[in-house]
Amino acid sequence: MNRNAPRRGASKGSPLRSIKRPQSAGKKAGAASKKQAAAKATPKPERVELPTLQLGFVRGVAPSKWAERWARAVREQPLELVPVDLHEVENARTEFDVLLERVAPGAIPAGSEAAARTRHAMHLYNETIALVVPADHELAKLGEIDLEDLSLLTLLAHPDHFAEWPEPQEWKDPSWTPRNAKATLELVATGLGGALMAQPLARHLSNKRVHAVIP
Questions:
Q1: Residues 7-29: pLDDT tens digits?
Q2: CA distance 57 to 51
Q3: 98 forms bridges with which residues in the sheet?
Q4: How far apart are CA 198 and CA 86, in angstroms?
Q5: pTM score, two decimals?
Q6: Residue 56 bridge partners (DSSP)
Q7: What's the burial of 107, exposed, middle or buried (CB within 10 Å: 0-12/13-18/19+)?
Q8: Closest CA to 53 of 81, 72, 94, 75
Q9: What percent of the chain is modeled with pLDDT above 70?
């Protein structure tokens, strides 16, 4: 007998391989049943419905970009945009969850002072100041103006004119003061004078046929 002859069932020079026996159908079904039972036993987390977040914003501010980003990032909580007039800002500070408001240069919103803080405020950006004049005024053709140009017209005093800006012509009777920016622009259109205001607010309320907005 040749002791070096290969064993029956194996080719010479090839390693022996172990063959895994297939799992029976009964064992597979049992494992699947255990997985299903475990899945049913694990309670699914309840969906929490968050209240609508109300975002108030003053006229001239465009909050659409914040609303779009919120819709993409926080899908489980809706966002409601609410416009706020100037005379409504004080009440809006406590009425809405978030408020985009306009303050005087260098000032901070009321209630955000460190000594007596009732809410938190964050500075977003500075708005450009614009002069609004009648569309047929001699300054209307200019692309921009400087302080010397303001001497060519009467600056109207109005609620949106901040004390840090060039001084306007005060009204002889305080009751003649326009109640809001829209009323101010109506006076400008009559040729009574010009008005300084935040450029976004001016562009939002002005009429191109009767007003010229000059930064």
A1: 444 444 444 444 455 555 555 55
A2: 19
A3: 55
A4: 13
A5: 0.69
A6: 82, 99
A7: exposed
A8: 81
A9: 78
